[in-house]
Amino acid sequence: MIRLINQEKHSKVASYLATLTVSGVLLVGCSSPPKAPDQALQAAELAIATAEQARVADYASPELGEAREKLTAARAAVAKEEMTTAERLAEQARADAELATAKADAAKAQAINDELGKSVNTLEQELQRNSGGVQ
C-alpha cells in the first residue's frame, strides 16, 4: 500500500516535470529574436550624412569620426544579435553627429563674426581717415 502511494507521488512529480520541460522547450522555440533597432540606425545614418553634407569634418572631425565608429559598432552588434547594445550605439552615433554639426555651425558663425568685426574696423579706420582730412 505504501509502495503504491509512493509510486503515485513519483508518477505525479514526473508528470509535472515533463509538463514543465515541454512548456520550457515550447517557450524557447517560439520566442523570436530581438528586433533590430532600425529607427535608431537610420537616425544615426541621417545625422552623419547631414553632417558630411555640411562639411562638418573641416570643423569637428573628431566628433564625426566618433559617430562613424559608433555606427559601425552598432551594425556589428546587430550582426551579433545584441540589439540593446546596437540601439545604444546608434543613439550615441546620432548624438555625436549632431554635436559635430553644432560645433561646426558655431565655428562657422564665429568665423563670420570675426570677418564682420574686421570689416567694421576697416570702415572705422576709413571714416577716421576721411573725416581727418576734411577738418
Structure explained in plain terms:
This protein is mainly α. It has 4 helices and no strands. The protein has helices at residues 2-30, 38-53, 57-79, 83-134. α2 (38-53) runs antiparallel to α3 (57-79), α2 runs parallel beside α4 and α3 runs antiparallel to α4 (83-134). The longest helix has 52 residues, at 83-134. It is rod-shaped and about 120 Å long. The N and C termini lie far apart (132 Å). 21% of the residues are buried.
Task: Give the key terms.
mainly alpha, 0% strand
Structural class by sheet pairing and helices: mainly alpha
Sheet with most strands: none
Contiguous low-pLDDT stretches (5 residues minimum) are none
**Helicity range of the residues?**
over 70%
**Distance N to C terminus:** 132 Å
Strand percentage: under 5%
Question: How much is the radius of gyration in Å?
Answer: 33 Å
Number of strands: 0
Overall shape: rod-shaped
Mean pLDDT rating: 83
Provide the succession of SSEs. HHHH
- Total of DSSP H or I helical runs spanning 4+ residues: 4
